[in-house]
Amino acid sequence: MSYYIGIDIGGTSVKAGLVNEKYEIVKKMSLPTYSQAGEDNGEKLANALNKLVRDLCAETGIPLGEVVSIGAGIPGSVDSQSGTIIYSNNIVMENVPLRELVLARLGRKIEMANDADAAALGECLAGAMKGCKYAMMITLGTGVGSGVIIDGKIYSGYHSRGGEFGHTVVEIGGVRCTCGRPGCLESYASATGLIRMTKEEMMSDPQSGMWELVGGDIGKVDGKTAFDAREKGDASAAKVVDTYIRYLACGVTNFINMLHPQKICFGGGISHSGEALLAPLRAEVYKEVYGGADRYTTELVQASLGNDAGIIGAAMLGRE
Ligand SMILES: [Zn+2]
């Protein structure tokens, strides 16, 4: 049996797993992420990675020398060739030579990729898109993340700057995105966008059942509020969900017209709405997709590995 180590670096914790060649996680461990602004954040992250890898080996009895490759998914932009974190607002880092810092401590090279790319690879190897050569994962969380797999490999563009599908425009002159561009898909299809649209609709309809769901406190609105109220037959909530799905479908149809993957899987908080999200999304997308949807149709499915996708994908970066 061959073993690999994958590390998923998030805003609150660093999760690491020892993964075998069947893509099963044998053992998982985590440490809190140190994400206060400071000059030695990179050093602290490298220390955490070094500790997690050594602890995983010690706990499982697998010698470090027998681990085939080690990889990490980073929440931000990464230069995979040089092993540098270019920028991450999530873990507050800029131009951190993480590969070099880990090498000095662990004596091993780590592979690096954007976390959304690593998760897409994980779902493609072992999850909802298993066996697909052409696949895409869209994460509907605080932002809209995307990972593209072409010919079984991550496609990330020149110096890993590509694949930012969340920052394509679905509304010219629309709501300004965190990236600065008005009308990005992320401004509408993220949980942040859905919450904004939910609150706007509640303000214009004081009778909406959504108020009851949040106990009259608009600060308690989350990505489920509109979906839950729609289930109960609330008309304003249905309006919010319809608008949300129209924007998401616009983006997804664009991606299919560009890449035509075999499958697109959806992860992140909003994807937990399952078929309440996917059924109307399919209806909208298949109505508009170029060439029609009666054959070789891109399947739209829910991601199946949760947080493990990022660990498994990162573990296999060196094996690509
Ligand atoms: Zn944007």
UniProtKB/TrEMBL annotation:
Pfam families in UniProt: ROK (PF00480)
Superkingdom to which the source organism belongs: Bacteria
Family the UniProt entry places it in: Belongs to the ROK (NagC/XylR) family.
Full protein name: Glucokinase /transcriptional regulator
